Amino acid sequence: MLQTRHFRYFLAVAEELNFHRAAERLNLSQPALWRQIRDLEAEMGTPLLEREPRGISLTRAGAAFLEDCRDILERVENARLRARRIAQGELGTLHIGFNEIAGRRPEMPRFLQAFRRAFPEVSLQLHFLMSQLQVDALRGGSLDAGFLLRPRGERTDFQTLRIGEDDYALALPRDHPLTRREGIRLTDLSDQALILPNPRNNAVIYDRLMTRLRDAGVSARIAQVADNENTIMNLVDAGMGLAFLNLSFRPPEPSGVVLRPLADLTMPVDLELVWRGANTNPALAHLVELVRAQAEAPPA
Fold first, then answer.
1. What's the pLDDT at 298?
2. Which of 97, 113, 119, 209 has the most Cβ atoms closer than 10 angstroms to its Cβ?
């Protein structure tokens, strides 16, 4: 059976056209090299060398085999280097999730640019997913990591790295009577139509908001559920109801929507990089290390 060493041995002999010099180059004894070449020719079923008193030369088969040897050895070396680089996390693919809030924060382009500079041969495949869908994808293995919002203090079986924080405010039309009231409270929403996060994709926040409303004695009038901030904002702007949006959200100008804090509502959430501890993608460790360093560094 042909092995890699047979190609290396033949390459040395074919390039030197001298068994003595080839044996020195390979750090082998001349008789051992001679036997290896003889075994190779027996395996090939044809002579590769012309052996004459004045020296050796390549047969036509040997000359063709020499070209293939060079190609095979180059491929083997490239495969070895590629496997080692993948194992070291310098080559490969990372599937990264991010939600709407993470996508608009200034940290995100900073993280991604820094990673691409440091590891240009790791392909970053980005997936826009709401936080709950990212959790499902992380558990299913289709995501390596995700940038998502998680209620502060919530237990998790993932590894997490906190990179920011946020909270919730009331979104309402600019001409709504409550915009003129000081210190809006949850009880002020008793007779208001509300637009809430879709419980199918954001069950945790939906449940927390419903609990806070019930605790305040408010029977929520849910007019609509929606999946993303821009949709919610447009529904508020259209007069469909009031909503809860993150404090970091900035309605575009011109817009008929304003944000107002609620005196008795605080639901802090953390923006985190989240991943499974059992994930074996070597490039993931580089991403986590880089994001940690970038998150701890002061803004430029």
1. 59
2. 97
